[in-house]
Backbone:
DNA sequence: AAAATATACTTCGATATCGAAGTATATGAA
DNA sequence: TTCATATACTTCGATATCGAAGTATATTTT
């Protein structure tokens, strides 16, 4: 059967047709679209942070800590969507850079609470501006209504994927 | 001035308000939403590919080569959104794994054309099914109409960011 | 209370990625 | 034609990331 590359309706396509379509048209695949977009967000952010001598890897943790201070590494991993062993390394780096400090939780000695130093806290105002501006650049010329739909869709896809990851015992 | 965390309209928010809002509500930030979504796509794909002994790093290149064979490393970098030096390393790995081969372009000796081996080509059917299924899982329960809006938005954001990256001389 | 299980963190070795700076070849300008 | 610039690829050293397996502490079950 020939593969139609145009406006075929997914719900009426059979299996081979769907595979063919996504195979030949990455722009139809959310995996592709999301990855490409992410790479570019990340690169731009990276370039901006470099001018402040902040490693991109630290950014995501700072972002969490500015909202809630004194949290476990587990919590940071969940919020940043980064594996726990990665978080260990990153937090060590942040401690060495004087951004955060760590102490064992008195009531549960398995936990180590991570807290901002005054220096870490002081970066918020300086750095958040970049995040805001990059978001503004990215969304330029797009209707607020469509942005809102997309936020919902991205959140829902994340949920769907998380559920599947758990189901398959990944992470 | 107090920051309203509810349904403020961005177009009427002043600077501090926008920063405060995005700072405290990462779910409003596309940088955050896209990254989280990407991480989960990537992890799930990774878990699937591991069962076929294929490194995730190779996947994106295979994906391009299945559509168009015998292309330059530059082309591969552009299509995969990966820096050229990364592509060098990856293609070397793929050559060693017997997935592709390389030859200098006769008409332009700067170029090295990368082409699939029969083995590399033979993986397409086996592996594309995973990509399709993961997309299906991710988009479960979302209206096709909203998906289409989101595809457009993601593509447009990628364009906007690309333009800015060029403007700032990044990449 | 002892044993089994779960949770938080860590260590290890590997992979994926980049920026900066370098080499070889091609193209355009003087 | 020769010099300057651009393009494609490479090398190097660093960062960001993970999976698997290990340790310490807490919680649950028997």
Residues:
């Amino acid at each position: 059967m020939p593969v139609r590359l145009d406006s075929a309706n997914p719900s009426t396509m059979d299996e081979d047709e769907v595979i063919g379509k996504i195979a030949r048209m990455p722009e139809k695949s959310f995996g592709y679209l999301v990855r490409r977009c992410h790479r570019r967000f990340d690169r731009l952010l990276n370039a901006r942070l470099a001018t402040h001598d902040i490693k991109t890897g630290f950014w995501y943790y700072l972002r969490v800590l500015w909202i809630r201070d004194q949290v476990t590494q587990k919590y940071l991993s969940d919020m940043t969507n980064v594996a726990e062993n990665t978080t260990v390394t990153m937090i060590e780096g942040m401690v060495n850079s004087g951004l955060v400090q760590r102490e064992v939780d008195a009531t549960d000695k398995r936990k180590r609470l991570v807290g901002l130093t005054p220096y870490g806290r002081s970066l918020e105002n300086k750095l958040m501006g970049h995040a805001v501006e990059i978001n503004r650049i990215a969304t330029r010329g797009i209707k607020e209504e469509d942005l809102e739909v997309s936020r919902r869709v991205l959140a829902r896809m994340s949920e769907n994927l998380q559920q599947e990851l758990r189901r398959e015992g990944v992470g």
Summary: Residues 43, 46, 50, 72-74, 84-85, 87-89, 108-112 of chain A lie near DNA strand C (CB under 10 Å from a C1'). Residues 1-8 of chain A have pLDDT under 50 and may be disordered. The helical segments of chain A are 15-24, 30-50, 56-67, 73-80, 84-96, 118-138, 144-167.
